[in-house]
Design a protein that fits this description.
By secondary structure, the chain is mostly helical. It has helices spanning about 20-35, 45-55, 70-80.
């Protein structure tokens, strides 16, 4: 949170007990890799998903933005992210 990798919701809440969606996971990885400054537009999650797709974060996965992400899918996304150059 202190590094702005996880920001929370527009209403100021964090909701730590809720599941994380694909869109939220990709958004956190885009921020972690340093590409948040490349995000264009304000329509979330499309703006972060575009960068995530271009980087290959969700390669090999079928994504529905709003569905919860599984531990296995997170593992694939993190593994994919390890090969992406930090910005």
């Amino acid at each position: 949170y202190g590094l702005n990798l996880v920001i929370g919701f527009d209403d100021g809440t964090f909701k730590p007990d809720e599941q994380i969606t694909y869109a939220q996971a990709v958004t956190m990885l885009v921020r972690t890799l340093g590409y948040a400054g490349d995000v264009k537009g304000t329509k979330w999650p499309d703006n972060f998903m575009e960068i995530g797709n271009n980087l290959g974060i969700a390669r090999y996965l079928q994504i529905d933005y709003n569905k919860p992400v599984t531990r296995g899918e997170i593992a694939v996304m993190v593994s994919n992210s390890l090969g992406i150059e930090l910005k």
